[in-house]
Design goal:
- The chain is an alpha+beta fold.
- It contains 17 helices and 22 strands.
- The strands form five sheets. The protein has an eight-stranded antiparallel β-sheet with strand order 18-15-17-16-20-21-19-22. A five-stranded antiparallel β-sheet has the order 8-9-13-11-12.
- β16 and β17 form a beta hairpin.
- α8 packs parallel to α9, α8 packs antiparallel against α10 and α9 packs antiparallel against α10.
Length: about 525
C-alpha cells in the first residue's frame, strides 16, 4: 500500500550522505522512487490522494536499533521526524503539511516480523510495520485470529493501534484494547516497553505517533472461527424498534443507512464452528451477481450509454461510474442511492466464511470521509442516542438537500481505557457501555481537478453541518484518522475545546513534554488540535 501511497519517492540526497549527517545506521535506507527522473521530489500521498507531504526523506529502518539511532539523531538536531504507516488515514494523519523545515518521515514497512505466537496464551508479538493481513496469515496455522478488525487489513499494526481503529460489535472494544504490551522509541525517554497495569500503556495507545515510534506490540488473540453473516434491509422505523435487540443479540453488527431512501442495510455476523447457516435465517441470496447489479447497470446505461467495461464492473466501480456523471446533483445522487438500495435488497441472505473475510469489507473508491463517535448508553440500558443521531442526520441531509451518497455507515464498540480513544470517558463507564461510530462520505470518482475541488468544497459544507448541528448535542468527537486540520483560528479553538471536554488533553500534553520535549514528532494538525499547553 505504501507503494501506492507514494506517488513520487525520490531521495534528495544519497542515503550515505544522509546517514553520515544523522549518524544513523546505514541499513536504515531512504525510500527511493527508482527510475523516476523527477529528482529533487519526494512526495508521499495518502490512499485517497487528498493529502500529501514532501519530507526531506522517508526512512525505512530494518531493525529496532535503526529506529533508535534515527530517533536519537533527529532528537539531537531537534529535527522533525514523523511516523507514517500505510498512508491509509483519510485525513493523512502523518501528512497534514509540507514538512519543509528539514522534517523527515519514518516508515516501518521493512520492520514487519511476526516475532512470536503463543498458542496456549493466545497472544502474538509483532513488529509494528507488520500489516494486519500478515498477522492474520501468521496466526492461522496456530488456530488463532484477531478478535476484531477494521474494514480493511492493509494497515500497519502501529497505525492500527495508534489512531483508534475499531471494527464493530457492541460488546467488543476498539482494537487498542487488544494490546497487552507496546514498545515505543521516544525522543525524550529512549526506548520504553509498556504493559497493562503500569499506568502508562493506556496513554501511549491511540498515541497518534506523538509520543514516539511504536516498534513492537503484543496483542491478545482468539480462536480462529467462522462467522455466519446475515444481510437484511429494514425500514428506518424497523431499525428504530429493533436496534437494541440487534446490538445485544449479534457479536458484530453494522448499519448502512441510505439517504433519501427508507432503507437501512443491517449486516450481522456471529461465530459458528459448524458452518451451518442458522435456523430461520434463510440461505444465500437467490439472485445471481449480475441480477444484483442490474439496477446499477441499468441506471448507468440510461444516464451514460456505452460506458466501456460497464458489463464487467463490480458494485463499487459501478457506483463510482454513476456518481462521476453528476456527483453534486441531488436528483442524480438520489437515483444512484435508489439503485444501491435495490442492490442490497437483492443481496439479502445468509453466508458463512472465515472471520477475516467477513469483518473486512468493500469501502469503495477514493473518497472524503468523516467519522464521529459518541456514547449511546449501555447494552443493559441503551440511551437510543445512536438511532436519534441517525434520524437527525438524515433529516438534515434531506432538508438541506445535501448530495449525500450511500452509505452512511454506523458501527458500535464497547468502551476503551486509552487516554485519547473516542470510546473513552473521563467519568467511570459501566462494564457494558456502548459507543456509536458514524461515518459520512463523498466519493472522488474522478481525477479531474475542478470536479474534485467542487466535491471537496461540498463535503466540507456537509461536515460543517454535522459539526454545528449534531456533534454538540450528542457529545461527539471525530475519529483521529478522519479529523482535519482546522481552517482558521476560530475552527481551531472550537476543536481544542471539543477535545478538551472529552479527553484529559492536559495529561497528554504533559506526557509529550516528557517523551517528545522538542515536538519533533508532531504535525501542524496535531499542533492545532492538541496544543502543548493542553
Amino acid at each position: 500500500m505504501l507503494a501506492r501511497a507514494a506517488r513520487r519517492l525520490k531521495a534528495r540526497v544519497p542515503w550515505a550522505s544522509a546517514a553520515a549527517a544523522l549518524g544513523a545506521s546505514a541499513s536504515c535506507a531512504l525510500a527511493d522512487g527508482g527510475d523516476d527522473d523527477d529528482d529533487d521530489v519526494l512526495e508521499v500521498v495518502n490512499w485517497s490522494a487528498t493529502h500529501s507531504a514532501r519530507p526531506t526523506a522517508v526512512y525505512t529502518p530494518e531493525s529496532v536499533a535503526d529506529v533508535e539511532a534515527l530517533v536519537a539523531a533527529h532528537a539531537a538536531r531537534k529535527a522533525r521526524l514523523r511516523p507514517c504507516g500505510s498512508a491509509l488515514s483519510p485525513n493523512g494523519l502523518a501528512l497534514s503539511a509540507v514538512l519543509s523545515d528539514g522534517g523527515a518521515m519514518v516508515n516501518l514497512g521493512l520492520l514487519d516480523d511476526v516475532v512470536a505466537v503463543d498458542a496456549e496464551a493466545r497472544t502474538v508479538t509483532v513488529r509494528c510495520g507488520a500489516k494486519v493481513d500478515q498477522v492474520l496469515d501468521a496466526l492461522a496455522p496456530h488456530g488463532l485470529t484477531l478478535e476484531n478488525l477494521a474494514s480493511i487489513a492493509s494497515q500497519q499494526i502501529g497505525g492500527f493501534v495508534g489512531v483508534g481503529a475499531h471494527g464493530t460489535g457492541a460488546s467488543l472494544p476498539p482494537v487498542d484494547e487488544h494490546v497487552l504490551e507496546l514498545t515505543v522509541v521516544t525522543p525524550g525517554g529512549g526506548t520504553v516497553t509498556l504493559a497493562r497495569g503500569d499506568g502508562l500503556l493506556e496513554s501511549f495507545l491511540v498515541g497518534l505517533g506523538a509520543l514516539g515510534v511504536a516498534v513492537e506490540a503484543k496483542l491478545r488473540c482468539v480462536p480462529k472461527h467462522l462467522l455466519r453473516e446475515r444481510v437484511q434491509v429494514m425500514t428506518r422505523n424497523e431499525v428504530a424498534a429493533k436496534h437494541a435487540d440487534l446490538l445485544r443479540d449479534n457479536r458484530h453488527v453494522r448499519f448502512m443507512w441510505i439517504p433519501f431512501e427508507d432503507a437501512v442495510v443491517v449486516v450481522s455476523n456471529n461465530p459458528t464452528f459448524d458452518g451451518v447457516l442458522g435456523e430461520g435465517q434463510g440461505g444465500p441470496s437467490p439472485y445471481t451477481d449480475d441480477q444484483k447489479l442490474a439496477p446499477l447497470r441499468a441506471l448507468l446505461e440510461a444516464t451514460r450509454p456505452g460506458v466501456p467495461g460497464a458489463a464487467s464492473m463490480h458494485f463499487a466501480e459501478l457506483r463510482d461510474a454513476l456518481l462521476a456523471i453528476a456527483p453534486l446533483d441531488v436528483g442524480h445522487v438520489r437515483a444512484v442511492n435508489k439503485a444501491e438500495a435495490e442492490f442490497w435488497r437483492r443481496s439479502q441472505g445468509t453466508d458463512v466464511a472465515d472471520s477475516s473475510r467477513k469483518l473486512n469489507f468493500e469501502c469503495g473508491g477514493q473518497q472524503w470521509v468523516n467519522e464521529c463517535c459518541f456514547p449511546a448508553g449501555s447494552l443493559s440500558q441503551p440511551s437510543g442516542a445512536d438511532v436519534r443521531y441517525m434520524l437527525d442526520l438524515l433529516d438534515l441531509i434531506e432538508r438541506e438537500e445535501i448530495p449525500a451518497p450511500a452509505p452512511i455507515e454506523q458501527r458500535w464498540t464497547s468502551g476503551s481505557r486509552s487516554l485519547l480513544s473516542p470510546a473513552s470517558s473521563k467519568a467511570p463507564l459501566p462494564d457494558d457501555a456502548i459507543f456509536s461510530w458514524v461515518g459520512v462520505i463523498m466519493y472522488l470518482p474522478t481525477d479531474e481537478p475542478t470536479q474534485r475541488a467542487a466535491i471537496t468544497a461540498a463535503f466540507d459544507g456537509y461536515k460543517k453541518h454535522c459539526e454545528r448541528s449534531l456533534w454538540p448535542a450528542y457529545g461527539a468527537v471525530e475519529h483521529w484518522a478522519k479529523i482535519e486540520e482546522p481552517a482558521d483560528a476560530d475552527a481551531a479553538a472550537t476543536a481544542v475545546a471539543r477535545l478538551a471536554a472529552k479527553f484529559d488533553t492536559a495529561k497528554f500534553a504533559a506526557l509529550r513534554d516528557v517523551y517528545d520535549p522538542d515536538n519533533i514528532l508532531s504535525t501542524p494538525l496535531l499542533d492545532a488540535v492538541l496544543p502543548r499547553g493542553g
